[in-house]
Design goal:
The chain has 188 residues and is mostly helical. The protein has eight helices and no strands.
C-alpha cells in the first residue's frame, strides 16, 4: 500500500495502517534525522514522539504530502531537542587531560559542530520549497524527475530551486569554509 493510501486509512482510525505507515517510513526518517543530528538517541526519541503525537492527534489533515509532513515534523523536533540539549550543558567540572592531541580533538570537534550548526541555520533560512528540494535531492537521493513528481512541479523548476539553494548556501558559507580550513591546518 502506498503512503497516501496508508495515511488516509490511518486518519480513519485503522491501527494496522498506522503500524504500516511507521514501518514504511521509519528507516528513511532515521537516515534523515542522523543527517540533522549525530545524536542517535535524540533522533530515535524524536521519531518516537512524532508517531506518538500523530496517533493521538484528531486534527491531522487528510490532504498532505505524507513524506514531506513527516520529514518536516521530524526536523523541527530534532532541532528543538538539539537546542535544549546544548542549552543544558553548563560549565561542568570536567577533568580533561591537557595533551595537544586532546585539545586538537576538542577544537576540531567544536569547529565541526559550529560549521554544522551554521549550515543548518543557513538551510533553515532558505525558502521552504528550496529546503524540500535539497532534502529530497541530497538526503533522500531522489532524481529530479522523482522530485518533480513528489512536489508536483516540473523538472526544470526542481533544477532551478536546487541550483538557487546551493548558490545561496555557497555564498553564505564561503567565510565559514575558510575558517574551517584555517583551523584544520593550524591544528593538524
Amino acid at each position: 500500500m502506498d503512503l497516501n493510501s496508508c495515511w488516509s486509512i490511518f486518519i480513519n482510525g485503522d491501527k494496522a495502517a498506522f503500524q504500516q505507515l511507521y514501518e514504511q517510513t521509519s528507516d528513511e526518517l532515521f537516515a534523515y534525522g542522523i543527517g540533522i543530528s549525530n545524536d542517535r538517541e535524540i533522533v530515535l526519541d524524536s521519531i518516537h514522539d512524532l508517531f506518538v503525537d500523530l496517533y493521538g492527534n484528531k486534527k491531522i489533515s487528510r490532504e498532505v504530502n505524507v513524506k514531506h509532513y513527516l520529514f518536516a515534523s521530524l526536523r523541527r523536533r530534532i532541532l528543538a531537542a538539539n537546542k535544549s540539549h546544548f542549552e543544558s550543558f553548563g560549565d561542568g567540572d570536567e577533568s580533561l587531560d591537557n595533551t595537544d592531541s586532546r585539545e586538537t580533538e576538542i577544537i576540531l570537534d567544536e569547529t565541526e559542530k559550529m560549521i554544522s550548526s551554521r549550515l543548518m541555520a543557513e538551510v533553515s533560512q532558505l525558502p521552504k520549497r528550496q529546503r524540500e528540494v535539497l532534502h529530497l535531492r541530497y538526503t533522500m537521493d531522489l532524481s529530479y524527475a522523482e522530485i518533480s513528481s513528489v512536489m508536483e512541479i516540473n523538472i526544470e523548476t526542481c533544477r532551478t530551486l536546487c541550483h538557487r539553494a546551493v548558490k545561496v548556501l555557497r555564498a553564505n558559507l564561503k567565510l565559514m569554509k575558510l575558517m574551517a580550513i584555517l583551523v584544520f591546518y593550524y591544528f593538524s
